[in-house]
Amino acid sequence: MSNPLQLSIVTFNKGAYITVEGKANADQFYIVRTGKVQVSKEVQVVSEEGGNILNPGDFFGVVATMSGHSHIETGQAITDVSLIAVSRDKFDLLIEKNTPVAMKIIESFSKQLRHFDEALTRLTQKTIKTESEPSHLFRIGEFYARQNQFNQAYYAYYQFLKLCPGDENAAKARERLAKIKPYSKAVFLDGDDKVFTREYPKDNMIFAENMPGKELYIIQKGTVKITKIMGENEVLLAVLKPGDIFGEMSLIENKPRSASAIVMEDSVMLAVNKENFARMVTSQPQIITRLTTLLAKRMWLIYKQLANTLISDPVGKLWDYLFIQLEQQRVLLKRGDNFTFSFGVREIGPMVGLPPAVGNTAVMELLKSPIIKNIDNRIVCTDVEGLSKQASFYRKMQRIELAKRENKR
User: Fold this and answer.
1) Band of the pLDDT at 94, cuts 50, 70, 90?
2) What per-residue string of b and e applies to 147-157 under the rule 16 or more CB within 10 Å gives b?
3) Can you tell me the distance from the alpha carbon of 31 to that of 75, in angstroms, rounded to the nearest whole number?
4) In angstroms, rounded to a whole number, what is the distance separating the alpha carbons of residues 14 and 27?
5) pTM of the predicted protein model
């Protein structure tokens, strides 16, 4: 493999460790030039596609480098290897000079994220039935109609009829559309490839889960919430702000939307289709770098959340989840320092997939700790270093338990 970027080439002998899981401050990732590298995780949280033996052209360490977080995997040379080292500040150059490698990274991230997201939904929402067919759009419309949120309801019914005109609920959907049309201000119902900059009035749906996707969006103004309808509830997955990118997985993989996007205030979006995206890769590498960084941060977070599902002790799950939030926000773990979380005791149980009764008991145990307070419906930690140690203890206990299970096999 040639090295047209004039990037550093590094070599490692057989058996050498190149990256180590948990190590912070990753400043470069690697592309295998010659030889073979094995990547492994201390705990395999979910089966991963693609295997763990890397060959020339493959890459590793990208999640930690581009997200700025700790490594989520260990890379070890299983033969003598030669690697191309790419620092975060050289990624723009990689995109310009070796577009296929940059696109391979983005496509791999997108595919893995969808795989991880589906696994996390299965593990944390075991009691909630989720739908993946386009017909689910009718139920989305019904949910928002009951909430008198007519922009969202109209949009979902409209997309349902486009995709499922012969469905058993089609007649009902047409009735609903006619009834709520006077109250709806839904926009861009059919998209518009010619409109690159789009204005969305407050409470409008940009896209709905399970509908086909052919564009990603860059927020220029306003805020967007990403949601899923699970059972009889709207589950908030994220709130995005100006500069954020979303909807990229459907564009890159040509798969249905995995969630809905709704503007929370009057907003302006850049809508990027496949043709525009292909031009951006070479003409605006900084946007592709931002997208890769965003995907890396999502990958790091969802991996940590998946690892959290393996902790069997409910109280341990809560401690670990709180520590993940500190890591995500790069909080300096200094003894006696306070930190106020953006959620309260009522929210944390469902966040880690605990049933209400189990979650309530676990929260009561959590609040017995002298360093955890419930103040103004927010969880407050009065010693972030102490929180780190508690989370580490429960993760260690889980590793011991998993090792015992393996030994019994």
Assistant:
1) confident
2) eebbbbbbbbb
3) 12
4) 23
5) 0.74
